[in-house]
Specification:
The chain is built from 19 helices and 17 strands. By secondary structure, the chain is of the alpha/beta class. Helix 8 crosses helix 10.
Length: about 575
């Protein structure tokens, strides 16, 4: 341990800690912009400068190591003036169109500028701003608001995608794609981790809110929403609830209050349906010598990643659509037929914590069965725009016939959840009733998790990738022959959907102090434990669907509605 003082407060921290680490122990706040826990610490923004004994000048607290007997001052006139000047210089090139910015009131630059009483026009403003890149169906990149903190680049590099990076040097430095091509023409997988990392409004999702309002206002349209598993533990955050608060019942009420006759269904239903189809497909491959390992196919960011980088393994992907697309197909077929609705008049809206789902909706293989994918952030904006007092509204219930689901469907929102849900059902199919309900080995936020289970005389070797960095490690081990798995789950976002690119913005102060992913995941597992049904094959809704429509899992009808194909892609278009 190393002993030092921060503003006169004595602290002891492990050797190798930074001044920023020590300041947290002392409960002393040091501002940051480029630093983000688990993503980047590089000292480039110069906001965390402090005075430290033994240093010739101000040092960056996020990277400067502590030493025995060091004394640090974080609030001297010299330090405050340095930070203020840095902010004013950043603001001199920043497009200060704050009132209509998606990050207004949740922008780290805006917050710091207010705290340091900055003059936003002290050093003037550019005559022209960079052109906005809105070529992607999922993301918008607005370099006029970029502060060159490079957190987005670090996030993209962690994903081993590399679709964006710094170009040129000095004052001309900016973030762009290779060869300055449009983002849509790169190998970007639309995961949105760059948005999660961005402290300002330089990266945002492409909004579909107005399309949904138009549909709600159209008397010829019947509008139905369905919500992804993790949204229930995210949506409360924009309305002041602690991270991980389960607001499922208020969420349902709020959605129905957006317009007359708006219905709200539970996407956990098609998560359960995915498990039945996927587990059946896996068992068929295992028993008939099919292509192994089988990869999960519910994450569109992962699908695009493998299409770009490992197209030779496309046959290893499960042919199951994602729960989002299964629900869209189910609504435009079974639901419309049962209720005598023209599919053209049914407007289908999924609510998801994922920006890649916007790309998935547009895939030609999906037949536009889902009309719009809204992020959790977009839904929160619609609720606010509608004047709904979210925390005061009564609890509500999902609409029939898609209201009851199992805990297995709920844990889809956490990394390892799809694997665990599949194992719960596969174990019964292989070994009969009485098999374990929980498979804790595949839980947690580690990049790669592995486990081996023997059930009914069959040994199943599984792996779970949390984030595309972990996915690439697994793919390379499979490719080299080092590993021979039976079943592999991949979620493009580290931590899974609970850390998706469309999740609510979490202030840096909170993100740097707690593991947001773990808190949200724990809320989903707690919800799962509270339910009477925790295995997908025990869902009464899924049972009804097979009896009334599909016949049996992996039937011809099921393949027509619930399964799809994939496409090999070049690195750049």
């Amino acid at each position: 341990m190393v002993n030092l003082k921060i503003n006169g407060i004595a602290v002891s921290v492990p050797e190798g800690s930074t001044i920023l680490d020590a300041a947290k122990v002392a409960n002393v706040k040091i501002p940051t912009l480029c630093y983000l826990k688990d993503v980047q610490k590089c000292g480039s923004c110069r906001m965390c400068l402090v005075e430290a004994t033994g240093a010739r000048g101000l040092v960056a607290a996020c990277v400067y190591p502590v030493s025995e007997g060091m004394e640090v001052q974080t609030n001297t006139p010299k330090v405050r003036q340095s930070r203020k000047t840095t902010l004013e210089l950043i603001l001199s090139t920043h497009n200060k169109k704050c009132l209509s910015c998606a990050r207004s009131t949740s922008c780290e630059l805006q917050r710091l500028a207010l705290e340091y009483n900055c003059d936003e026009d002290k050093f003037g403003s550019p005559e022209e701003y960079p052109v906005v890149d809105d070529s992607s169906v999922s993301l918008i990149r607005d370099n006029s608001k970029c502060i060159n903190c490079t957190r987005c680049v670090a996030a993209c590099d962690m994903q081993t995608v590399g679709a964006i990076g710094p170009i040129r040097r000095g004052f001309a430095k900016h973030i762009g794609s290779p060869f300055e091509v449009a983002l849509a023409d790169t190998n970007c997988v639309n995961c949105g981790q760059c948005i999660v990392a961005c402290p300002v409004g330089a990266l945002t999702e492409k909004s579909n809110v107005q399309q949904v309002w138009d549909a709600i206002s159209d008397p010829t349209k019947e509008v139905v929403f369905y919500t992804a598993p993790s949204v229930r533990v995210q949506l409360g955050e924009p309305f002041g609830n602690p991270v991980g608060t389960n607001v499922e019942k208020k969420m349902v009420t709020a959605i129905k209050a957006l317009g007359q006759n708006v219905k709200c269904f539970n996407m956990d239903v098609t998560a359960d349906l995915t498990i039945i189809e996927e587990a059946t497909e896996l068992l068929s491959r295992v028993t008939t010598g099919g292509t192994i390992p089988m990869f999960t196919s519910c994450c569109p960011g992962w699908i695009k990643f493998i299409e770009h980088n490992y197209p030779e393994y496309l046959d290893n992907l499960s042919t199951c659509k994602s729960p989002q697309q299964m629900f869209g197909s189910l609504l435009k077929t079974y639901y419309c037929e049962k209720n005598n609705i023209d599919p053209a008049n049914l407007f289908v809206v999924s609510v998801i914590p994922c920006t890649a789902k916007k790309f998935e909706v547009e895939r030609p293989e999906m037949n536009l069965d889902t009309d719009v994918a809204l992020t959790t952030r977009e839904l929160a904006k619609m609720i606010s725009e509608a004047g709904i007092d979210f925390n005061a509204i009564p609890d509500g219930e999902y609409d029939n016939p898609f209201e009851i689901a199992t805990g297995a469907g709920a844990i889809f929102g956490a990394t390892g959840g799809v694997m665990e849900a599949a194992l719960r059902t596969a174990a019964v199919k292989l070994g009969g009733e009485g098999q374990p309900i929980e498979f804790s080995e595949v839980r947690g936020t580690d990049g790669v998790k592995e486990a081996e289970y023997t059930i009914g005389g069959v040994t199943v070797s599984v792996a779970v990738a949390s984030g595309l960095g972990g996915a690439r490690k697994i793919m390379e081990m499979i490719k080299s022959g080092e590993k021979n798995y039976t079943f592999v789950e991949v979620m493009a976002c580290p931590g899974g959907c609970i850390n998706g690119g469309g999740q609510p913005y979490v202030p840096d102060e909170i993100r740097n102090s707690i593991d947001v992913r773990a808190v949200r995941a724990n809320a989903l597992y707690t919800y799962d434990e509270s339910l009477p049904l925790r295995q997908s094959h025990k869902s009464p809704v899924v049972d009804l669907l097979y009896k009334e429509y599909f016949g049996e899992p992996n039937s011809h009808k099921a393949h027509e509605v619930l399964h799809t194909t994939y496409t090999a892609r070049n690195k750049f278009n």
